[in-house]
Each structure stands twice: as structure tokens, then as C-alpha cells.
Amino acid sequence: MTDLITRRTGGRSARVRRAVLDAAAELLIESGLDATTIPAIAERSGVHHTSIYRRWDSRGSLLREVLLEAVDLAVPVPDTGDLRSDLIDLFEEVRDLLESPMGKVLFDVIRSTDDSLADLRGGYWHTRLEQCAIVIERARERDGIPESVDSRVIFEMLVGPLHARALMSNEPLGTVDARLVVDTVLNGMLTG
After folding, report:
1. How would CATH label the architecture of 12-55?
2. Cα angle: 26, vertex 27, 28; to 5 degrees
3. What stretches of 32-113 show up as alpha helix (H) in DSSP?
């Protein structure tokens, strides 16, 4: 009988990856961006730092994966069958994320001048823009939304009040009315 060597997907490699990502997420929330270093992640996860560097070439690439995974779980692409409802859902999901402990980390990343996090900032924003593009594309197919409607501008107008409130005011994000923002965006989009 011939012995076949087969690789198990989801074996040790998946466990190591999950341990590192979970440890990094916990540290980000508990201790903040600056304290979430590769040595701290290695200690928390029980994974040697050289193994972490083999999988992620930098702290920035590891944090990018952690944060994008957290955002993808917190802000799924809504599909209610109605553009207004989709935009309200998207707005509320983004608002809930930004009010969460991970939202504080995201704002720290946005404000950071650390060049190694530039890819993370860009990746976060690009992924969110792709989500909005999906919502707008569905509305084009379903509702005849004009091709001239720019999904990037729609998303920026949608989440702009949240970012402005969070970065420049002491008012809670929950005071931003999702329906008012969405209706204002839609009125401008459909009449412009």
C-alpha cells in the first residue's frame, strides 16, 4: 500500500493564524494601537514571533488583516431589495462599528502618522467603497439608478457625518439620524 501525504486544510496552520489574529484583536482593544506589537502578539498568542513574521511580513500587514476581518464581520453588504433600506442598514452598521471598541482602534489608525499603517488605512477605505459600489450596482440593475451616480461620492456623503462627529465633536454617533442622512443623500443623487 502506498502512503499518500495529504495536506490538511485548517490544521495547525489555521489554528496558528487564528491564535495570532485573535491575540492581536484583543491587544488592540485592551491596550491600543501602539501597544500591539509583534512581541506582544507573540506572547499573547503563544506563537513564536518568527512564525508570525513568516506569515505576515510586517506589523502593518498583520494589523490590516485583523482590522479588515473585524470590519467585514461588523459591516456586511446589505441586500434588502431597496436602495434606501440598504443605505440605512449600511450607515447603521458603520455607525455601530465606529461606536464599538474596534471603532476606537480604527480612528487611531486613521489619525496615525505611522507610514507602515498607510496600507491599512487605504485597505479599510477601499473595502468600504467596494461595499457601497455593490449596493449602488444592485440598485442600478433593479431600480435604474443612472450610471452617472458615483458610488464613492455616495459612500463619502453617507459616512461623512459619522466621521465628522467622531473626529470633531463630543456628541455621540447615535445622535446622527440615519434616515435623515440617507434621504438627503438620495435626494441629491436623484435630482443632481
Report:
1. Orthogonal Bundle (1.10)
2. 90
3. 38-45, 49-55, 59-74, 83-99, 101-111
Most distant pair of Cα atoms in the chain: their distance: 73
Domain map of the chain by residue range? 12-55, 68-191
CB contact at 8 A, 83 and 145: yes
pLDDT tens over the chain, length 192 residues: 444 444 455 677 889 999 999 999 999 999 999 999 999 999 999 999 999 999 998 898 899 899 989 988 888 899 999 999 999 999 999 999 999 999 999 889 888 888 878 888 887 788 888 888 999 999 999 988 888 889 999 999 999 999 999 889 889 999 999 999 999 999 887 675
Q: Give the contacts of 77 (CB within 8 A, at least 6 positions apart).
A: 90, 131, 134, 135
104 in Cβ contact with 96 (< 8 Å): no
Give the CATH fold of the 68-191 domain: Tetracycline Repressor; domain 2 (1.10.357)
